[in-house]
Structure formats: C-alpha cells, structure tokens
Amino acid sequence: xxxxxxxxxxxxxxxxxxxxxxxxxxxxxxxxxxxxxxxxxxxxxxxxxxxxxxxxxxxxxxxxxxxxxxxxxxxxxxxxxxxxxxxxxxxxxxxxxxxxxxxxxxxxxxxxxxxxxxxxxxxxxxxxxxxxxxxxxxxxxxxxxxxxxxxxxxxxxxxxxxxxxxxxxxxxxxxxxxxxxxxxxxxxxxxxxxxxxxxxxxxxxxxxxxxxxxxxxxxxxxxxxxxxxxxxxxxxxxxx
Length: 240
Known about the structure:
The protein is an alpha+beta fold. It has two domains: 5-131, Hotdog Thioesterase (Thiol Ester Dehydrase, Chain A); 153-239, Roll (Thiol Ester Dehydrase, Chain A), CATH 3.10.129. The chain contains five helices and ten strands, in the order βααββββαβααββββ. α1 packs antiparallel against α4 (172-180).
C-alpha cells in the first residue's frame, strides 16, 4: 500500500502577480512538481521512465483554492496515488498553509506514453504502480469532460521556445497562461478563481500556429485549437 508524500514550497517573487498573490500557473506548477517528486520517491519518476523511452503525460487536471497564497508564504502539498487502470492513473493533492490549514486541493489524471510512438502504455504491466495506490478518496470533484467551446473572441498564438518542455510539447501550465492572458486585468483584482479544470487532448509543439478561444458563460470557457480546428486543450475557470 502506498502513502502520502509531503512537499514544502515557498511563494517566490517570480510566482506572484501585481497583487502579490501567487498566480494560477504557479500554484499548478507547485502541485505538478510535487507529483514528480513523489513519483521519483516511489521509483517511477521521469528519470526512470526516460531510461525506458517513456514519460508521464497529464490528461486532466482540476485545482480548487479557497485563497491565493501571498509572496513568501510557505505551502505544504500532500499527494498520493488514487486509482490505477490500464491506461490512466489518478493522483490527488491537498494544499495547506504553514499553520496546517487546508486552503486548496487538486485531482489529476495521467497517462504513460512511449516517446517514440507517442502511444499510451499499459500501467498494469508494472506491479510497482499498483503498490503505490493509497486508499483515500479524492479531496474534490474529479475533472470531467469539457464540451466544445463557442467562442466570442479568438486570439492567435504561435508556440515558441519558452512554451516547450522536455517532452518537446507545450508545458501544461502554458495553456492556462495563454487563456488567462485573454481576460481583462480587472478580472484578477475583482474576482478570484475558485476552481479551474483543464482537459488535455492533443499536443501543441514548437512552431504550431494556434487559436485561443474564449466563451463567457457561467464559467469562463476556453479552447485551444490548431489550424485544422482540432481541439488540443479545453478549460473551465469558475470565479467567486
């Protein structure tokens, strides 16, 4: 049976916006970094996978925050493996402040791919993944499927060097960055994002020409498409 890993982070000046609160992207980065640290600790991190020509790929991601931590504040991210199926595994997270009060939580879905074929691998073929499962429910609602967006505004984006990670595709939090950059600056002072959900469907790679689409519904809906109209990522941002 697996366990819960705990990882401490500090909100650095590079992680905040003009309100001196941590950005949505930096919170997501810390959570995903904890996932990588915990996978390393359990023997199936990226260094081990890379030696076998494989890698983890984020499929769905939902984050809820009661508040945005401020500059220099310390956070504790707890993480554990939920379910493991043939093609997907669930990883859960709790975020607490330095006083131990829970201020956020997250759920993520991951697939493992062969780096040459880009096809998913069978997670049940390695018993170590099953041993890592910890029997505790997900702390928030799991990320569901987001329907196609009917945009009221579209902006172009070309994937550039600073967007691309070690897998040679756009970094997960870059999609979110392109989306929130479409919003008026007042949104980030007059509202707080209660929850964001990301669905990743296809890779965006260096040099790709994309369209970032925005629909102002009950929640802010986004879709990133390529020039053929294929959706690469969809997102829902819920505000309070």
